[in-house]
Request: fold
Amino acid sequence: MFGLWTTFTSVVFYLTLAVSLGGLVGNGLVLWHLGFHIKKGPFSVYVLHLAAADCLFLCCHVAFSIVQAALGSQNTLYFVITFIGFATGLWLLASFSLELCLSEVFPTCYQSCRPRHTSGVVCGLIWALSLPAVLLPAHACGQLRAGTRPLACLRYHAASITWLLALACVACVAGLVLLIWVACCSRRPRPKFYSVVLGSVLLLFVCSLPYVLYWSLRPLLNFLLPIFAPLATLLACVQASSKTLIYFTSGRQPGKREPMRAVLQRALGDGAQQGVGGLSLPMSAI
Reply:
């Protein structure tokens, strides 16, 4: 029985490592092309920061997995640092989904009231706030140093769980509203990032929630259900890696072989967007 468990954990470990390495390559390509070769609009800024957050999460996981395999050591600090990238990506996806939903449901108000650099400011705030949002409960619960403050740990951890679940709910509700609005209510063409948002939200619902649950109940799950941790980590890595497949699929034209830059330009470049009256508006005017 012990040998079977060892074999299973080893298979999951190396499968997770392979998925993470593939995701690093895919997200690295998105960062390279979107950062240097594709004209960015407000929505593609979110995609750029999402790819950066996924790269951070996958890179930390790969690095700490190699250290764990080489030295046989497992430190709670590894999980905390890795979770920063995961939480940042969750926050970015919630903001991305909400803004795209608002731009489709209330197009006139969105185009007239939205400040020009909203996407960049929001992404910067998310990166700045994700660090204390993860590190404060980890510090209070003894994951960064020896010693635990039970009351502070309980308060910070409850706030952290509420925050993460609220972000997941915002992303899922915004994606659902967008799906219903485009399918049943809107007469306009599908928005540019419709498939990207719906695919990312579906991945969030299927693959990310177990990892949030593991963050919430880590000591209990490690004691009662040790199999949960490697499976939740595998699903989280699948979620971070599969977004790039969504980008490539949404930009690819069947039957045509095109350079990757052209595919990503079609999927992620939003240098122009349809206005309310069907006119093409430059993104610098939004």
